[in-house]
Amino acid sequence: MKLLLLGKNGQVGWELQRALSVLGEVVALDRHPATTPYGTLSGDLSDLDALRATIRAVAPHVIVNAAAYTAVDKAETERELAHTVNALASGVMAEEAKTLDALLVHYSTDYVFDGTGTTPWRETDAVAPVNYYGATKLEGEQLIVASGCKHLIFRTSWVYAARGNNFAKTMLRLAKDRESLNVIADQIGAPTGADLLADVATAALQQTLDNPALCGIYHLVPAGETSWHAYASYVIEFARANGEPLAVQTINPIATTQYPTPASRPLNSRLATDKLRDAFSLHLPDWQSGVTRMLMEALNK
Ligand code: NDP
């Protein structure tokens, strides 16, 4: 089997390089041109013609897209680029997957929802993004579904990895320098490991190749829920208990309204995962176990 992986050096892409490698030949690209057995290929999602040419040159059985424009605040002003990368490039991948009869595996976000209420969002719930990044990710989903290609779309939230930049690592850095931190306490969701996202996608895509009826949109986050404030506290307590020298004394819970950002964020990022667990007979561990593992790696414990 031949797989084309786009965005190979992002948090999820890095883990996919590992997870997909047991399935077959993986042609893994980042945004820079690369020499491959299929010629010099571009993995730049902002160049739609080059992206199409890459897919045609490789002619994969599976396309896995881990690349995205993920700078949520910057997307409010860099609209054209965010739209091309998150929406139009997904559409090109879907069209080419349809022609090749390939399976397209793609990631999306809880930011397709407006964040109201307190119950976990289901795949069938109405979408209504509150920021431009969410709107571009939603359009990407819609272009994939409309193309009629075989697809798996995993909506997730609050992604972290030992490699790459994310909230947990920012909190650790700030906790070393500052005595007091203010962290948002009224946004609720689940921190999701890039390793979990890669491993579940790999298991699910294998099953879907055997049974295309499994194609569709799935919510993928670990079990449990937390706030950014409780998540930060968990990270900092773990680091302190493991001997990290930290300056921080107080972690103050604040409201989203006290921390204005260019892009609005949904308050309720909870995602219901019953559909995924039932369809693929998978177990999702609690969020703390993945975060603990990442911290042990990041802190070399
Ligand atoms: P990262 O930001 O870690 O990785 C995204 C990757 O996309 C980077 O390697 C980046 O490359 C690449 N990329 C950006 N622009 C282009 C481009 N024009 N051409 C090719 N590659 C490009 O994101 P994650 O791994 O965390 O995200 C994976 C998926 O999960 C995405 O679909 C994202 O929308 C989704 N998601 C992420 C969340 C999060 O908290 N991070 C939350 C919910 C969903 P470079 O480093 O060169 O810019």
Walk me through this protein's architecture.
It contains nine helices and 14 strands. With 301 residues, it is of the alpha/beta class. It has a domain at 2-162 and 192-223 and 270-284: Rossmann fold (3-Layer(aba) Sandwich), CATH 3.40.50.720. The chain has a six-stranded parallel β-sheet with strand order 2-1-5-6-7-12, sandwiched between helices. It has a two-stranded antiparallel sheet with strand order 3-4. The protein has a two-stranded parallel sheet with strand order 8-11. α1 crosses α6. The model has no long low-confidence stretch (mean pLDDT 97). The structure holds NADPH dihydro-nicotinamide-adenine-dinucleotide phosphate. NADPH dihydro-nicotinamide-adenine-dinucleotide phosphate is lined by residues 7, 9-13, 30-31, 43-46, 66-70, 85, 107, 109, 137, 156-159, 164, 194.
